[in-house]
Amino acid sequence: MSSFRTVAVAAGITIAAAMGTAQAADFPQPKEPDYIEPLPPMEMRGGVYIRGFVGMTNQDFRGLDFIELHDPNYQFTFLDKGSFDSGPLFGGGLGYQFNEWFRMDVTGEYRGKVDFTALDHAMWVGEGFPLEWTNDHRAKKSEWLILANAYLDLGTWKGLTPYVGAGIGASRNTISNYRDINVSLNGVWYGDSHSKWNLAWALHAGLGFEVTDQLTLDLAYRYVNLGDAQTGTVRHAWDDQTLTPMHFKRLTSHDVMLGLRWNFGHEKAYAQPKSGFFKN
């Protein structure tokens, strides 16, 4: 009898355990928590920036204009229409980066003195016998240039950002040390120094390289139209004769510049914590 009772108890325990296992299978089992990887940082471009730059100018102009050219008794030909040497420029600016595509700044710069030379052949065919001579023109030119600029950044690849832009402003053009030397007739004319403000405009193309999150190295090309310039009154060296000023028409320049930009608002923002987290 005791043996039968023992077998019955064991069978009951086995059946109860099987039923418990079956019931437990009907309920969802707890899962291991999912680990969420942190998202990469997003570049947040924006805010105020300052910039400084240096460069070299490559200048040209449309030509000289002076009163004798409009005298019918005066026959005139340029043997060398004239040219400017290259010169240095130094500048800086203050700007604002609106987003990763668009920014604006205001720049001011000094464009150093460059030498000008030209040579002409002239002939007077009025009363008396004809006269022929040459004029050796020499002068120096410099400018102060102020521009308001807008730029379109074209995307960033491995820290490199190409861009294009345009600017408009004003240029204060100065002509100094003007000389007109007539060797064959022993004549010398000189012009007073004169400065003139003009409307100026520019086109930009460049490449920025991000040295750090906030510091950008900037290599740029710029075409700039500086307007006109002129001497002061032109005077004869030996007597009281005077002529109207010499006009330098449509000054332009192809500039190459190297600079730095420091952006106070450039930072990295994270959509999730840097180290990631477990999702319940």
Please render the helix and strand layout as text:
Elements: H1 2-25, E1 34-36, E2 42-44, E3 47-57, E4 59-60, E5 63-65, E6 74-84, E7 87-97, E8 102-124, E9 131-153, E10 160-182, E11 187-191, E12 194-210, E13 215-230, E14 234-236, E15 242-243, E16 247-263, E17 267-269, E18 277-279
Question: Any overview of this molecule?
Answer:
Strand 14 and strand 15 form a beta hairpin. About 4% of the residues have low confidence. The protein has a single domain, classed as Porin, CATH 2.40.160. The chain starts with a helix and ends with a strand. The longest helix has 24 residues. The strands form three sheets. It has an eight-stranded antiparallel β-barrel with strand order 3-7-8-9-10-12-13-16. Helix content is 9%, strand content 64%. The chain has one helix and 18 strands. By secondary structure, it is mainly beta.
Strand order of the largest sheet: 3-7-8-9-10-12-13-16
For the secondary structure, the number of strands is 18
Poorly predicted regions are 7-11, 268-274
Q: What string, H for helix and E for strand, traces the elements in order?
A: HEEEEEEEEEEEEEEEEEE
